[in-house]
Amino acid sequence: MRLYFSGSNGIRAVTRPTGRPLSPQHALDLLLEGPAPAERQRGLITRIPPMGGQLTATARAGAVEVFVPVSVSTGDFDINAVSQIACTAAHAQVPGAKSPTRIDIRIHENLVRSPTPWTVRCGPNNNAVPVSTN
Question: Are strands 63-67 and 104-108 parallel, antiparallel or unpaired?
Fold first, then answer.
């Protein structure tokens, strides 16, 4: 499983053996635990703010719906936090996915199906890239 953390040179992927592919929900659960001790020794940190609840992720064909807990405003997320979430979710097992860079990550605020989620993809440099909804 690939998880994405922030380092001195931007967002970095780390690989953790799991024995099987993980769903986006399982991957985000691991991400929220933060870097392992060896990863922290390499200078990796998380930019995701503390949350009173978990991120909730539902995979659909070619997309992942991510719901942010009520206790956190997405305005509290900097671009590194969004990139960590988007790239971790995109590299999990998503039905019908051909390439992680083609998976839409739709971020909904406050655990409700907001009528206008914002959509990003994991870019080639492990950064969140906005997707036009037009």
Answer: parallel
| Statement: residue 134 has pLDDT above 70 | no
The pLDDT value recorded for residue 127 is 94
- Domain containing 118 equals 2-130
Name the E strands within 42-85.
Answer: 56-60, 63-67
- With a CB cutoff of 8 Å and minimum separation 6, the contacts of 34 are 5, 45, 46
Residues in CB range of 41: below 8 A, 6 or more apart: none
Mean pLDDT of 110-130: 83
How many Cα atoms within 13 Å fall on the side-chain side of residue 134? 1
Domains identified in the chain, total number: 1
Mean pLDDT of 15-43: 93
- Residue 112 reports pLDDT greater than 60: no
C-alpha to C-alpha distance for 96 and 87, rounded to whole angstroms: 17
